[in-house]
Amino acid sequence: MTHKERTTVYDVVIVGAGPSGAVAARRLAEEGMSVICLEQGEYPDYTKLRHSGFEFELTKNQYFASNPRRRMAPSDYPVNVVDSDVEPLMWNGVGGSSVLYAAAWHRLKPSDFRVRTVDGIADDWPLTYADLEPYYTRVENDFAVSGVGGDPAYPPGYEIPLPPFPLTQMDRKLAAAHDRLGWHWWPGSNSIATVKHNGLLPCVRRGACTWGCFDGAKASVDRTHWPTCIRLGVKLVQNARVLRVETGSDGLATGVTYVDRGTGRAHFQPGRTVIVSANGVGTPRLLLNSASKDHPDGLANSSGLVGKRLMMHPYGTVSGLFDDFFENWQGPYGQRSYSLEFAETRKDTNFYRGAKWQLMGMGGALATVGTWPWGGNSDVWGENFHPTVQKRFGRSAYWGIMAEDLPSEDNMVSLDPDLTDADGMPAAKITYKASQNTWDLLHYNQERAVESMREAGAYETAVMPLQRETGWHILGSVRMGEDPRNSVVDAFGRSHDVPNLFVMDGSVMPTSGAVNPTGTVAALALRNSEAIIENRRSQPVSKAAEALRVGS
Amino acid sequence: MTHNINDFQSRIAWVADTLIPSDSKSGMPSATEAGVPERLLPRALKERHDLAPSFFLALSRLPETCPSSPLDAIRALGSDDFHTISFLIAGAYFLDETVNRKLRYPGQEALHETPDYDEIMEAIERVQARGSVYVDVA
Ligand SMILES: Cc1cc2nc3c(=O)[nH]c(=O)nc-3n(C[C@H](O)[C@H](O)[C@H](O)COP(=O)(O)OP(=O)(O)OC[C@H]3O[C@@H](n4cnc5c(N)ncnc54)[C@H](O)[C@@H]3O)c2cc1C
Ligand code: SF4
Q1: 10 Å Cβ neighbour count for A230?
Q2: Contact (CB, 8 A) for A62 and B48
Q3: Does A186 contact B127 at a Cβ distance shorter than 8 Å?
Q4: What angle do CA A32, A34, A38 make, to 5 degrees?
Q5: Predicted confidence (pLDDT) at residue A6 exceeds the cutoff of 70
Q6: What is the pLDDT of residue A438?
Q7: Which of A35, A132, A382, A552 is deepest in the core (most CB within 10 A)?
């Protein structure tokens, strides 16, 4: 039952307090708009991380596990993955998945915005690299990106605001190998402060990044954005699970209905504009669950594309074993270096587009007998135990191979017909199969990565073709485009059907690129927010919300 | 249901040494030599109290004394139980200072190194000299 208290009508209601919601909240509040953000989880409790002792590896996947299906925190919602090759990973709380991200930071390449023009497949974006470039530059400062500018894998002008990490033995080996092979290699760019910046402390390299950064160096938006948002007057409501975006008889959004997870009571939060920033699974789930008599197939879904074209960057690994001992456990766990040599379509292959390779940390002693990045650990026990630890600990490196995922309407997020969360909202169901293009792309890149490891001196390599629990990047399920018949939102995230409803997360991406997406998610959110600010006088608003405003 | 670790000591001893025997080549101790049953496992179970009930439940399905093919017996519990047992035993083993010292693992310590900018510049100049690596769509 809806709780009927007189509530303030905000200029903007945002669903989700992750990077996209936080970037929007801050920018809109800076311009004096009244903003409320409803977030189903709470602030992360970093004291639950045993980041500095030998207990770290034993405990890291407990409270801060990245798979909500394993973590099962009260703020998580169920995701049915029975029909999916890849499981989506996320953090549901203030900061969103930036609490757990490895913080490998990238821009898309110019051709990523023009896949149809360049390769004759998939789609072009309704904007270009040049359109997004100024926003990339600004969010890179806000997210404390460290690294080295001048990467020839990008057009000139891509500078990085903070200084890089020192090169490690692992970087040196791979850099020298790529010099000999003539392949691209570059020091890692990460949204991790190497010097004090924007409320962050310099990284101390304990390597806990994907389990929460206790030391306060990683740019998760609970640290970089929310304190400023609160100072600017943004109201952040925790434990507020949004069930529906509501619309009036004029077809415009009036606000959202949410459940206070503490009391179990439902509330209506009116707003003049609604922004959904709930990620590539949460956003289509919410829009589909907002179906009504006027929108029987879900809100903003006249194209039928809400939930379709899900992309998750299928991920494989190639690890190498070396004779000499080097400190491969040190942080950051975000990429130490990367290669974009094979990131775009090549003439000599049978597939389109490409992959990004990232050289990541290996972890400590316990990780040598775990499943990651080795693919399995059934044969490491008994007489194999010590030889395995000796071979791997301090003597191994791996390339993570992140495949560009091409959109397919068969890969999708839908509402599970049976399963619900604790508040009765239908669970998300993922249907996802890696395409032949993906398999060919991964196979080719893994062969090249084996060459890279061998050239760097590895005496043995191991290939893991497609790891299942790697759905860190959840993209594409609310496609943007110019034509309302084949896209859900326009180039500024505005719904074609409901002009005061915006989507600001990675679900709007028409294609996925091969690189980590948060730089693009944040840049899009900033660009879209500035469009809202610019158009605020002409923004259509529901009469129902206006009536409430007068009465409030 | 709570379990008393003392009721499981004989099972823990053979299970731990089956998974982690000693190794003369590397000089590494077995799980019991390192102190897993009495000293380290109670610490590990305290840290991972969430896994303790399934750990003891799985152990209770194993014989009290070491069977003839001990690794096969632990594997026969199924992959979930095998994982819980092996993860906690190995996790306990790697809590030990001496084991880590022998591996030359200092733990995830805080580091404050300054980069060698000359080295970085030399490395990237070699890459830049090879030319651009992107499709120009302009
Ligand atoms: C383990 C891991 C590693 C990653 N590594 C990298 C990396 O190295 N580099 C990179 O670029 N990206 C990485 N990512 C991806 C990155 O975290 C995301 O791109 C980014 O967080 C997306 O921001 P977002 O705001 O769109 O969504 P999210 O961060 O997912 O935030 C969405 C928020 O919405 C809330 N929400 C959802 N539904 C509702 C509802 N109905 N009501 C109320 N609230 C709701 C959620 O609780 C959540 O807080 C990683 C992700 C994970 C999980
Ligand atoms: S390595 Fe740096 S960014 Fe990662 S957890 Fe440690 S301090 Fe944080």
Answers
A1: 13
A2: yes
A3: yes
A4: 140
A5: no
A6: 97
A7: A35
Contact A183, A339 (CB under 8 A): yes
Tell me if B50 and A340 make a contact (CB, 8 A cut-off). Answer: no
ipTM summary value? 0.97
At position A398, the amino acid (one-letter code) is Y
- Does ligand 1 have an atom closer than 6 angstroms to the CB of A333? no
Tell me the H-state helices in A192-322: 221-224, 226-231, 279-289
- CB distance A425 to A77 below 8 Å: yes
Rounded Cα distance, A198 and A87, in Å? 33
d(CA B55, CA B48) in angstroms, rounded, equals: 10
- Looking at residue A3, its pLDDT comes to 46
Mean pLDDT of A169-198: 98
Q: What is the DSSP string of A174-226?
A: HHHHHHHHT---EE--BSB-SS-BTTBPPP---S-GGG--TTS-B--HHHHTH
Please check the confidence at residue A551 and state whether its pLDDT lies above 60. Answer: no
What pLDDT is stored for residue A546 in this prediction? 73
Q: Are A507 and A284 in contact (CB under 8 A)?
A: yes
Alpha-carbon separation of residue A158 from A142, A193, A509, B121 (angstroms): 15, 18, 21, 16
What angle, 0 to 180 degrees and rounded to 10, lies between the N-to-C axes of helices A19-30 and A518-534?
Answer: 30
Q: Which helix (H) or strand (E) holds B91?
A: helix B79-93
Q: What is the pLDDT of residues A305-321, one digit of tens each?
A: 999 999 999 999 999 99
A460 DSSP assignment? E
Tokens of A90: 């996320």
pLDDT confidence bin for A549, thresholds 50/70/90: low
Query: Which ligand is nearest to the Cα of residue A193, counting in written order?
Result: 2
What values do phi and psi take at A440, rounded to 5?
-65, -40
Residue A72: strand, helix, or coil: coil
Residue from A210, A165, A241 nearest A400 by CA:
A210
The residues that bridge with A396 in the sheet, in sequence order, are A321
Task: Supply B121's token pair.
Answer: 């510049």
Rounded to whole angstroms, how far apart are CA atoms A292 and A300?
Answer: 11
Q: Which of A428, A448, A221 is nearest to A318 (CA)?
A: A448
Tokens at residue A497, please? Answer: 């059907």
Mutation test of ligand 2: which of A209, A210, A214, A335 has the most ligand atoms closer than 8 Å to its C-beta? A209
Show the CA angle centred on residue A497, arms to residues A496 and A501, nearest 5°: 80
Does residue A552 have a pLDDT over 50?
no
Mean pLDDT of B50-64: 97
CA count, 13 A, side-chain hemisphere, A63: 15
**Residue that is written with structure tokens 């719904």 in the block:** A495
Nearest CA in chain A to B133: A153
- Please, which residues have CB within 8 angstroms of residue A436's CB and are 6 or more apart in sequence? none
pLDDT digits (tens, 9 = 90+) for A451-500: 999 999 999 999 998 989 999 999 999 999 999 999 999 999 999 999 99
CA distances from A510 to A2, A24, A48, A488, A493 (A): 37, 20, 38, 10, 12
